[in-house]
Amino acid sequence: MDSPCARRLASIGRHLHLGRVPAANTNDGDNILLLHGLERVAHAHGSTRNKNIHIGWNTCVDLLVDGVALMEALDDGAPPPTTLERIDMEKMAGVRDLRRVFAYWFAQGAAAERFFHTQQEFDDIVAVAATLSKKEYRTGGNAALMAGALAQLGCKVLLGGPVGPELRQLLDNRVETVSKVGEGGHDAVHLILEYPKGAKWGDLETPRANRFIAVYDEFNANFSGLEPMLKATAEQATIPDAFVASGLNQLELLDSTHRNTRLRAIASALQDMPHAVPVHLEMASMADPVFLTHVAHTLFPHADSFGLNEQELAMLYSAVGGTFAPHGPILREALVRRCPEPRAVAAAIIHILSTLGGSGSDDSGGRDITRVHYHCLAYHMIVSRRGSTRWAAPACAVARGAITASTKAAGVPSVRHLTADMVDLVMPTVFTLENGEQRRVSARSPVATWTSSFTYHNAPATRAIFDFHVAPVLVCRQPRNTVGLGDNISANGLAFSLP
């Protein structure tokens, strides 16, 4: 491929093959000042109250347990799999596979979600998890978690996804639901294996706090809430201010024929959405790169925005033709390390936008990706196309997302409850862009900005200008929550991006 964007990425490749990002150089007092600076920027936006947002489609009850405790309970304290035994796989069969896949992600301290082959295999694991002394049941599923976060912001929320008696009790009572599980049925359960930074499993020690999710869920895999949600949306007196499509990774549980049938149905639903309604895709961890490619090419033409984390960005970049060093311009480690390089992240996002975008515009009657919300442990980035009428206040939105990451991880209601000994700044206060320019974040200017332009692969005559906004995250030293952080971040970022 010899497009202008490909040549541009190649030209900056030498800048991206660098060592680790330097450690942040701040003291605890500076961190608190930076937090207050972010709060000041976030509060510059108007109210999110009464924004009308519809969200589909994955909902469940999460069972949270300590990941290492479950591993030890499943195999009577046997040592973890060796380096050669640790692998990732799309679907797991029984305890042995779960241990191997969990060990693979635990060793990296990276989040992932994987599926079991059968309901019985999964139920056997859940039964053991339910016997652990330390466990908790919470609202689960990207759609349900985002719905709860938006309701707390004062938004009017319509949630499409199967909701049974257990989940209804856990959900914020301000969330309106449209789909139920079958008569006498129960909510799907997803198993969340959490672990703190430095947790040890035999000779393995994880470098950061995170979680692994194990699932067998036919309700959400079949997108049972899709048709009821479409009917409810059509019956609303007014169109929503935004529509969120999430849970797409649940399709991986299905065979290829069935998953492609449901994917086409989702694409049709998004295509039928009124053009005035912005459509946001909330990405999630996928194991099948071929299917991820299919998802991107099928759904992105019908969306205006997408959100994802560092692992998901690396997978999506590769799935849509991006190449890693030594054959491409970006070092994969630069995207997935504890503090990914902002210039590498920006280059990957530009590749995705230039590959999948350019099919429409805000005023042409078509859709085009005009906004990206990226989040990792160390910082968040919102990328928005200049001139788009879909979105507003990217600096406020990215600051709000960064604050949400800190407060939700710490389990506190606001910045005022965070103290200097609770958080660390992982992102360096000065970083270098692809063109060699430097950007700095500080309490006075906590959001760094720059502009980049490129041409689309499928519309070489169209030059797009995108604005990049980056906000550092004050990382919780001892997080009380790891699951659902991305959903809370995305919900806040979206609500504060709406005009």
Helix content: 25-40%
Q: What is the oligomeric state here?
A: single chain
| Beta strand % | 15-25%
Which of globular, elongated, flat, extended, rod-shaped describes the shape? globular
Distance between the termini: 38 Å
| Order of strands in the sheet with most strands | 7-6-1-12-13-14-15-16-21-20
Sketch the major β-sheet.
Answer: 10 strands, mixed
Q: What is the CA-atom radius of gyration, in angstroms?
A: 21 Å
Whole-number mean pLDDT: 91
Structural class: alpha/beta
Descriptive notes:
This protein has 499 residues and is of the alpha/beta class. It has helices at 4-16, 28-42, 67-74, 94-108, 119-129, 142-152, 165-170, 218-221, 226-235, 256-271, 289-299, 310-319, 333-336, 342-356, 394-410, 485-495, and strands at 52-56, 60-66, 91-92, 112-116, 135-140, 156-163, 175-180, 189-195, 200-201, 204-205, 210-215, 242-245, 279-282, 305-309, 371-375, 379-385, 423-425, 430-432, 438-440, 448-456, 459-472, 474-476. The strands form 5 sheets. A 10-stranded mixed β-sheet has the order 7-6-1-12-13-14-15-16-21-20, sandwiched between helices. Helix 12 packs across helix 14 (342-356). It is globular. The model is unreliable at 1-22 (pLDDT under 50).
Write a concise synopsis of the structure shown.
By secondary structure, this protein is of the alpha/beta class. Helices cover 35% and strands 23% of the residues.
Features:
alpha/beta; 6-stranded mixed beta sheet; 10-stranded mixed beta sheet; single chain; 16 helices; 499 residues
